[in-house]
Design brief:
The structure holds two protein chains of two kinds.
Chain A: H1 3-14, H2 17-37, H3 46-61, H4 65-77, H5 79-85, H6 87-92, H7 94-99, H8 101-125, H9 130-136, H10 143-153, H11 157-181, H12 187-210, H13 212-240
Chain B: H1 2-24, H2 30-45, H3 50-61, H4 63-66, H5 68-72, H6 78-83, H7 85-114
Helix pairs in contact in B: 1-2, 1-3
Classes of the chains: A mainly alpha, B mainly alpha.
């Protein structure tokens, strides 16, 4: 046994992609277990638990986020092909999507205006700085689009990405509760609403807890919202004179 | 080999998407454009190849996991979030709730107007 070597082994491993990948998967597994133990409550989404576990681990072990991400980026990269794969459930449910194209378009534009309007209105009333305001504005949009929009408007792109994730988890927690309150059982409406208000988180949640049809509509909402917000937001901001 | 075929199709569409988005300076992420391209391709092809379905479903089943690495990045922004903490929290909660309620209401209402408010499930 050589304890000095153990120390060196840790230095080597903590900067290695292997450790980041291992702890990410382990955290997700543990988080999913915890969520099941808590009766699959949407209030503590497995993603939120995983993130808290991992931030705790990184802070305790003193590993920098950039070092962690060097390994975890292999998981992060799969978001791209997964987004492309959303075309498959959309294709499977193409008939239904085609029939509901008008409800979808109207709901999408109304939803975006509501999301942006309420965000800016509340934040302005509470006296947020202009920078925070513009960073908050694209919060309902999937992070890569939100970062682009925030930058274009004069917000902080990296913080925008964080707020998008917070919005996603809040949406997952509030969604089921609001649907129950409003007596909404239609999976197309549930999925679409989740995808619009909570982007990828809402889409993932729709797939895992409502079903493939809801997931398809959530993916549709996420894509459409991203596309339309990129064009609508600069207009709304100009109209409000921020 | 089916897994490989699936990945070739998905990555190929994403690649084309990036190419179009960057080439024309469209403010939309490449993968979203890739999704549009794949959808058009599937509509023309008329069916989903087995390998693509297997790969796609595998990825979509674990979609939530894929957000974890980016989410951990919030730790970098603790100080920025702290500065405007309550404004940010209240805004996010209220606005998300309002957005969910309004969107669901509008879509329900439109569904009924378009007729045949079908009850699925």
């Amino acid at each position: 046994m050589n304890f000095v070597a153990l120390d060196q082994v840790w230095v080597y491993l903590s900067g290695n992609p292997l450790l980041s990948l291992l702890v990410t998967l382990a955290a997700f597994y543990v988080a999913t277990r915890i969520n099941i133990l808590l009766g699959r409550t949407p209030l503590l989404h497995p993603v939120v638990i995983s993130i808290v576990l991992l931030i705790g681990f990184l802070l305790l072990s003193g590993i920098e986020y950039s070092t962690y991400f060097e390994g975890a980026q292999f998981i992060h990269f799969l978001l791209g092909p997964a987004t492309v794969a959303l075309a498959i459930p959309l294709y499977d449910h193409r008939e239904r999507v085609r029939r509901l194209i008008w409800p979808v378009m109207v709901a999408c534009v109304t939803g975006i205006v509501t999301a942006v309007g309420s965000t800016l209105g509340i934040a302005m009333l509470m006296g947020a700085s202009r920078e925070t305001l513009l960073t908050l504005a694209p919060k309902s949009v999937t992070s890569p689009i939100a970062m682009g929009i925030a930058e274009q408007l004069g917000g902080i792109p990296s913080l925008a990405a964080g707020l998008v994730l917070l919005t996603g988890s809040i949406g997952c927690a509030l969604g089921p509760w609001i649907f129950r309150l409003m007596r909404i059982n239609d999976p197309t409406v549930q999925g679409f609403t989740m995808g619009l208000a909570a982007h990828g988180f809402g889409t993932a949640q729709s797939f895992s807890s409502i079903g493939a049809l809801a997931g398809a509509f959530a993916g549709l909402a996420m894509g459409l919202t991203g596309l339309l917000t990129a064009f609508l937001l600069p207009l709304i901001v100009a109209l409000l004179g921020i | 080999m089916s897994l490989i075929v699936g990945f070739i199709i998905l990555l190929g569409c994403q690649f084309l998407g990036e190419l179009i988005v960057r080439g024309f300076g469209i403010p939309v992420p490449g993968p979203v454009m890739g999704m549009v391209i794949l959808l058009i391709a599937l509509l023309i092809n008329g069916r989903v190849p087995d390998g693509l379905r297997k790969t796609g479903q595998g990825l979509l089943n674990y979609l939530t996991l894929l957000f974890v690495p980016a989410g951990v990045g919030m730790m970098v922004h603790f100080q920025l979030i702290q500065a405007d903490f309550w404004t940010i929290i209240v805004t996010l909660f209220v606005s998300t709730a309002v957005t969910l309620a309004v969107t669901a209401k509008v879509m329900m209402w439109m569904n009924q107007r378009v007729g045949g408010a079908e009850k699925a499930k």
